[in-house]
C-alpha cells in the first residue's frame, strides 16, 4: 500500500510538471503571461448596439424637452445636476472626504434654475446674493462639524461637485434661451441640439474605432481602453457631424454659419468632449471605481454618460455668442 501511494505521488508530480505553466524568465514563481485575447466582432457589435439602444430614446426625450424649454427644462437639468453632484461626492467619500452633501445639492439644483431666471429677467444681482448666502450656509455647516473633519477639503469638494456636474450643464439653458431665442425659437432649439449631436457622434465613433482597430493607447494610466485610433475617429466623426448638421438643420431654420465656423464648432467640441471624458476617468481612477455609479443599468452612472458634454457646452456656447447666433 505504501509503495502504491508513493508511486501515485511520484506520478502525480510528473503530471504536475508536465502541465505546469512555463515560468517567466527572472521569476520562477510567476507563470508566463498569455497573449491577450481581442474581443470578437460579435461582442463589439453587442456593446455598440446596447449603447445605441440607450442613446436613441434618450436623445428623443431630450429633443422633446429642449423643444419645450422654460422651467421644465431647467427643472430636469436641476435633477440631473443633483444626481451628477452626488456621484462626485461618492468619489470623494471613497477617499475619506465627507462633503457637505445637502448644502451642495441645494446649490447644484439652483444652478440651472437661476440660469433660466436670469435669462428671463436679466437680473444677476439677486443670483449673486443667493450665491453669497449659500456659501455662508456652507461655511457655517462646515464650522459646526469641527476642524477634525477636514473642513477646507470638504468645502472645496462640495463647491466643485456642484460647479462641475450642474453649473456646466446649465449652459444648455443659456444656449436655448439666449438673446435671440424669443425672436427665433426654432433657431435656438437647433443650436442647443448641435453640441449634443457632435458629442454623441464623437463618442460613438471613438468607441467603435477603438474597439475595432485598437492600437496605441491615448491615456493608458487614466483610461486604458481609449486609443489614438478612437480619438482620430471621434475627431473626424464629430467634424463631419458639425458640417452635416449645419447644412441640413441650421440652414433650414435660417441660421447660416460659414464652413470655418462649423469647423470651429466641430473641432472645439470634439477636443472638449475627449478632454472631458479623460477628466472623469481621472476622478474614477483616484476613487478606484470603474463607473461613477450604477444609476443607469448596464451603462454606469450619469457622469459616465455626460462627462464629455460638460466641457463641450460652455465652449460651444461661447462660440455661438462669438458668432452672434445665440
Architecture overview:
About 70% of the residues lie in helices and about 5% in strands. The chain has helices at about 1-20, 40-70, 70-95, 100-120, 125-145, 150-165, 170-175, 185-210, 230-250, 260-285, 300-320, and strands spanning about 25, 25-30, 215-220, 225. The chain has about 325 residues and is mostly helical. The protein has two domains: about 70-175, no CATH class; about 185-325, no CATH class. The longest helix has 29 residues, at about 260-285. Strand 1 and strand 2 (about 25-30) form a beta hairpin. The strands form two sheets. A two-stranded antiparallel ribbon has the order 1-2.
Estimate the strand proportion. under 5%
Work out the radius of gyration. Answer: 26 Å
In whole angstroms, how far apart are the ends?
Answer: 92 Å
Mean pLDDT equals 84
Total DSSP E strands: 4
Oligomer: single chain
Number of domains: 2
Keywords, separated by commas or semicolons:
mainly alpha; 2 domains; disordered N terminus; two-stranded antiparallel ribbon; single chain
